[in-house]
Amino acid sequence: MQGSMSEVERRAAPPTGGGSASRAAAPGRTGAAAAGRLGRSRHAGWLLPAAVVAAWQVASSAGVLSDAVLPAPSAVAAAGWQLTRSGELPHHMGVSFLRAVAGLAVGGSIGFALGLANGLSRLSDRLTDTTLQMARNVPHLALIPLVILWFGIGEEAKLVLVALGVFFPVYVNTLHGIRTVDPKLIEMGRCYGMTRFALFRRIVLPGALPSVFVGLRFALGVMWLTLIVAETIAAQSGIGYMAMQARDFLQTDVIVLAIAIYAALGKLADGVTRSLERRCLAWHPAFRA
Amino acid sequence: MSGAGLPVTARGLARGFGGPPVLRGLDLHVPAGQFLAVVGRSGSGKSTLLRLLGGLDRPDAGRVTRGGGDEAADARTRVMFQEPRLLPWASVLGNVAVGLGAKPGPDGEARAREALERVGLAERASEWPEGLSGGQKSRVALARALVSRPGLLLLDEPLGALDALTRIRMQGLVEAAWRRDGFTALLVTHDVSEAVALADRIVLIDGGAVALDLAVDLPRPRRRGSGAALESAILDRLLDPSARPAS
């Protein structure tokens, strides 16, 4: 990345001169060149969060921000280090991560399967779609009291809530993806002698995949949201529980740590989805690396 | 060589889509190995006829017989659509391999490569279709249609969207393949000069039936403009509003 000249630099460079020579000769262009380099850098997205944390640290150190309101980033980091050494943080993170993944796997698989079934079979669609559309409009978090009554505050309750939350975005987008596969391609496949299974595997499924990924991204957002709420209300472990306990002891640093961890996990999940997209949708011009 | 072609017969074909019928009792016989061009005004039902002959659509009345009229004829029929209709998620080679049908066989990939080579795109085999130009996509679609050595090739204005030069090049490829493999070809087109350049016989569809049936007796390879007289005769007939078949 460093070695290649940006478009702006190349234009600015005289035909015979090298990159560094032209930079010295045309100081007015260096700002534009730097901006061009920045625009292509993969790490540019971290500039803003880093600036916010730096400003926050300065404000805390200068005493503008009280520790009771918002502890300094260094205090949050220290709390994180301490909890990691005591083994508490890895334990809670592991529990939350497992809950999230299990809920996503269960709810996502059911949503994907029903989306496929209703996209491919008119009968299945007639039988279930009305019910699902009705159920979709009930906020799944409204079921928390009922779920706690049924399952207590054990793992099942969290699994059910997360699964329920991720089900709908995956279902709706899978169904949409299958319905919008180009009928001309399907006609071509039929006319070229594809069996029903080959039609599904070679045309319908790849055609629906971009939309399935949109559903997955939505589902990831819902997954963290549901988990935070569920762990905050009814849990005996997990990051949400850790934050609630910290509230009882007025440990603002741990609360902020929990929030930061949710942000980091969310970003991690997004990164995994992106790399999956780049791998599965390499043919799609929008997903090329 | 011409034994590879599949004869097609249509008897009393009728088809409508709600409004007045598009085809009303059309009869047509295409002998094995013939290159037939179907011309007509826009909306005259020439594409409908092609879809019926290719088994993509069912007639309201009448029947179509291809070859012996069995399942084997289905597998030996290939269609080139108005658009290339390539799978965006399959490589160029993968798209050509689609033409091999349900059972590609062990030499499938080699045959697909050979077909791709014939249209001059061997070096693009592993690319996505997205990066190809319109003319290149059409060539991939042609390779896909030809890779299984069909007995009947139906071309539904596949060259309509191409620029003039690319079009002439594609016409050359289609004609060369037809001369080599001896399939029966049926080209639907609104371009009369294209019909005259390629076909053994030109059928004009008007009012839902065959209005004109002309043999093109010009030696091959044909020069551009060698059939000018025939071309203007057909155009006159197409442009003459008073000429309607008695129906």
From TrEMBL, chain B:
Transmembrane segments: none annotated. InterPro entries: AAA+_ATPase (IPR003593), ABC_transporter-like_ATP-bd (IPR003439), ABC_transporter-like_CS (IPR017871), ABC_transporter_ATP-bind (IPR050166), P-loop_NTPase (IPR027417). Signal peptide: none annotated. Belongs to the ABC transporter superfamily. One of its GO terms (molecular function) is ATP hydrolysis activity. This is ATP-binding cassette domain-containing protein. Keywords: ATP-binding, Cell membrane, Membrane, Nucleotide-binding, Translocase, Transport. PROSITE patterns: ABC_TRANSPORTER_1, ABC_TRANSPORTER_2. Pfam families: ABC_tran (PF00005). The keyword Membrane applies. Residues 8-232 form the ABC transporter domain. It comes from the Bacteria.
